[in-house]
Design goal:
Chain lengths: ~100, ~375
């Protein structure tokens, strides 16, 4: 559904490997988590806390809070405001965020 | 000028509960609400339906609170059937957390004396840390124990207010957002209420304007010596269930947010927030539930409690101007069911509920007051 724009000659972004739930996804350095996952074909990133209806990244600029996901064990991270890193573990969120007892 | 059986001044929880109680009994009611500029205790409060610990100086207040708590489930069902709005009322019992053995034992003796004063109708249990952990697995190690009462619960005050407003309209009542009431003029056994933009005529008038009752009450031969007391609240992002019963200053809402209160501040009519107060509230909450340290706070606000000098309510009928009543209290959520089902019938002409007899302003008049 989404495709990346062609890179300009001056950029040479490396590939970065992250996981999304049980999938391995190849992203590019400098991309946000939300952009990388949309490019990889992700349709939903979470379900809402009350009605549990599906949601996906929407504004892509940190305003709408639709793209909340669990990143490296931290719930409710705005995936559109977080750059990908090698080995990052991203999980979709089902309903309200879970309790986290110890920060990584 | 339209004429009504009752003009209720104030569209917050106290006024709306009384107006709903009057409208469901078939009276023609008009609610005069100041509008969104008003100090809205009803839109800032914490949402406890709370009994334990209340009424230590005046045990009839414990009886009044227990009466309301016992009527709450029926009110919530009635409002849902009528309006489709759920108040999210639950009564799983509630706990007051204690952080030292001294605190726990003084809590116990205070509640024991309250229980004696109500001939055992108010009952409670003391829990040690392990018993408390059975109820709240996430409880912090520094919480020594708690008092527990089966009578306590909580609800969403915003949905309650919406449901009452919808219920008033369902029963043919009128709601006007009309700006502040300027004057109440007693006239030939009835009342003309001057609002900013219009006048309303009513056979009887109920002052339920919160702190605004201070200026309105003397116009109909009553007095309402009230002062604002600020409480600040923080709310977290929505979480999976972790606190399945309310505590005095922490509760989890139906949507999953954790509300953290509360402060008691004498700052006049300033309903803002202060960082050091919010910080103290957050620290105390994290002591109670250490897992909250890893959650985000999404909003904070301050609101003004409507406080009489002794903190107890004020319910009084005017002797100089029969047909005028004043009603104000700090516990608009807890007492909502009693206001609908027991206070409104008194205002409509029934005998007063026995529990409210101490709550006239006479107790504040130094010449006449007797010790309670």
């Amino acid at each position: 559904m989404f495709k990346r724009l062609p890179l300009s000659d001056t950029t040479c972004n490396r590939d970065v490997t992250i996981t999304f739930d049980d999938l391995t996804v190849t992203a590019r350095e400098g991309e946000t988590v939300a952009a990388a996952l949309l490019a990889a074909g992700m349709r939903n990133c979470r379900t809402t806390p009350v009605s549990e209806s599906p949601r996906a990244p929407y504004c892509m600029m940190g305003v709408c809070f639709e793209c909340l996901m669990e990143v490296d064990g931290v719930p409710n991270v705005q995936a559109c405001q977080m750059l990908v890193r090698e080995g990052m573990q991203v999980r979709s969120q089902q309903g309200a965020r879970r309790l986290v007892h110890d920060h990584a | 000028m339209t004429s009504y059986d009752f003009a209720v001044i104030g569209g917050g929880l106290v006024g709306s509960a009384i107006a709903y109680g009057l409208a469901r009994a078939g009276h023609q009611v008009c609610v005069l609400d100041e509008g969104d500029v008003a100090y809205r205790a009803s839109r800032g409060n914490f949402g406890l339906v709370w009994v334990q610990g209340k009424g230590q100086e005046i045990p009839l207040y414990s009886e009044w609170s227990m009466s309301s708590a016992s009527l709450w489930a029926g009110l919530t069902d009635e409002l849902y059937d009528l309006t489709g709005i759920r108040t999210q009322h639950q009564a799983p019992g509630g706990v007051h957390l204690c952080y030292s053995a001294d605190e726990l034992s003084s809590r116990q003796s205070a509640l024991e004396s309250l229980s004696r004063a109500t001939q055992g109708r108010f009952d409670f249990d003391m829990l040690d840390h392990d018993q408390l952990r059975q109820l709240i697995p996430e409880i912090g190690e520094s919480v020594v124990g708690a008092s527990w009462s089966r009578l306590d619960g909580h609800a969403n005050p915003l949905y309650l207010l919406r449901a009452l407003h919808a219920g008033i309209q369902h029963h043919g009542g009128t709601y006007k957002s009309c700006g502040p009431v300027r004057r109440i003029r007693p006239e030939a056994g009835s009342f003309i209420v001057d609002c900013e933009r219009q006048q309303v005529h009513a056979a009887r008038v109920v002052l339920a304007a919160g702190l605004g009752n201070r200026d309105l009450a003397p116009q109909v031969g009553l007095s309402a010596p009230l002062a604002p007391n600020r409480g600040e609240i923080l709310v977290t992002e929505r979480m999976k269930p972790l606190l399945n019963l309310p505590t005095t200053y922490l509760r989890q809402t139906g949507e999953g947010s954790i509300l953290m209160g509360d402060s008691h501040e004498d700052v006049g009519f300033d309903d803002g927030t202060e960082t050091h107060v919010l910080s103290h509230i957050a620290q105390r909450a994290v002591r109670a539930l250490p897992a909250l340290a890893n959650t985000r706070v999404v909003r904070a606000w301050g609101a003004l409690r409507v406080m009489t000098p002794d903190g107890y309510p004020l319910y009084e009928a005017s002797e100089t101007y029969p047909g005028a009543f004043v009603a104000c209290c700090h516990s608009g959520v807890t007492l909502a069911a009693a206001h609908v089902k027991r206070l409104a019938p008194w205002i409509a002409g029934d005998t007063p509920p026995a529990e409210i007899s101490p709550f006239t302003a006479e107790r504040f008049h130094v010449q006449t007051a007797t010790p309670v």
